[in-house]
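[stage:ingest] chain + small molecule (EPS)
[stage:ingest] validated
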Amino acid sequence: MSLELATAGESHGPALVAIVSGLPAGLLLDRAAIDADLRRRQQGYGRSPRQQIETDEVEVYAGLRHGRTLGTPLALVVRNRDHKNWTWGMSPWPPEGPPTGKGKDAVTLPRPGHADLAGVLKYGLADVRDALERASARHTAAVVAAGAVAKALLKEIGIEVEGAVLGDDLEQRVDEARKAQDTIGGRVDVRATGVPPGLGSYASRETRLDARLAAAVMGIQAVKGVEIGDGFALAGLRGSEAHDEIHRDEDGLYRETNRAGGIEAGISNGEQIVVRAGMKPLPTLMKPLQSVDLDTGEPAEALVERSDTAAIEALAVVAEAAVAFELARAAREKFGGDALGDFVGAHSAYRERIDWQPR
Ligand code: EPS
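[stage:predict] done
[stage:export] tokens:
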């Protein structure tokens, strides 16, 4: 059984869409819990005025009846309220009437660090907007909606996932950057508890849980680095300092340290899963960097438009969702089942076989 996520949607188009397939039937979803995660994603310090326009809420178009999954593809939609200001500029069909509203003028000033230049070259576009709209981190609302569903599934087998910002000087850094008309990045970590040993496999690169989690988190806009556990710091240690010794007491096997971040050889080992991510500073600058006007070929300053100073708190929520979805995928592969009870039952039987309980 394979849990999959497909998303679609542009930043200022009508809506974002997420289709989650491979869920078992009978999972109870809580609309308020999904909406609460969507709100958490929007509320971080340093976000753009766009967040005052949006109040993200999930709508469900398929796969759910009376709050329970049907075991069929679940179709989630998050509308872009801002689309009303872009109805001409982002009309899916050829717009009627003269150009009006936002997005009516072509963007030709690519921002260093954004998708703008690589996107227009790759796809042969005349308007940078055709590249930046899908590349926008607005997309992460769809990931968070799907992640909330994954968290509901994981909860059924006792797994909890939580993301947090690393460093406590966030607000000061945001204030200073905003004053300087600049932007910042930052670091987050995501911890998953209750993950049994045995998710993922060393059999191949595609099945390794660490590789899969790294890809899931690296796939989030603006992420430039991912670590599992102590990650890069392990490279500077000796083996005797780096590895987590194995002990046993009356409750079973355990480790006193968790430098491996809960994964050895691509398989969860029963310890807390720890994934860290580093985010680059956001590329839309109020004091723009040097660029080239793609229309004239002349030097020009990059595009300036409404943007965030920081989105690091949002990243903590999005990375939590991405990690939850990947763990749920790995759990679906291991425990299978068309009905929720089959899935939960297989997990219980497996735990009994390996005599493991979360600490
Ligand atoms: C983004 C630019 C900004 C952000 C957006 C991501 O959008 P706008 O140009 O509409 O102000 O607000 O993030 C969101 C809308 C969101 O919901 O997270 C970008 O260029 O990536």
